[in-house]
């Protein structure tokens, strides 16, 4: 959930603080796979903020690990598979909304370094 929350905030951070173009910032947010600890240090130490430049996180993919557990030919299991994916999507959406809201609050009130730091800690 921490990664989802960060992915939503990266575009704002990269356009507002790092001064990337919007398209580049969106690309960075899409391709993000790691480096959270480094971003936490950079956000905490203002001297590490790079000069304005135009120069990439997370590809949202949730593989369907649950589908092989169900036999689609069995009507009872087909209903259970549908319920499984409905519950999974609901949990991801609620979790994403809660973490995004709390992370934005922390970043607004305490700074980007706290937002990145808490998310880094959650991932570790």
UniProtKB/TrEMBL annotation:
Name the keywords, alphabetized: Membrane, Transmembrane, Transmembrane helix
This protein's major location comes to membrane
Q: Which residues form a coiled coil?
A: none
The GO molecular function terms of this record are:
transmembrane transporter activity
Cleaved signal peptide residues: none
One Pfam short name? PTR2
What protein family is recorded? Belongs to the major facilitator superfamily. Proton-dependent oligopeptide transporter (POT/PTR) (TC 2.A.17) family.
The name this protein carries in UniProt is Protein NRT1/ PTR FAMILY 4.6
Q: Tell me what organism the protein belongs to.
A: Glycine soja (Wild soybean)
Q: What is the lineage of its organism?
A: Eukaryota, Viridiplantae, Streptophyta, Embryophyta, Tracheophyta
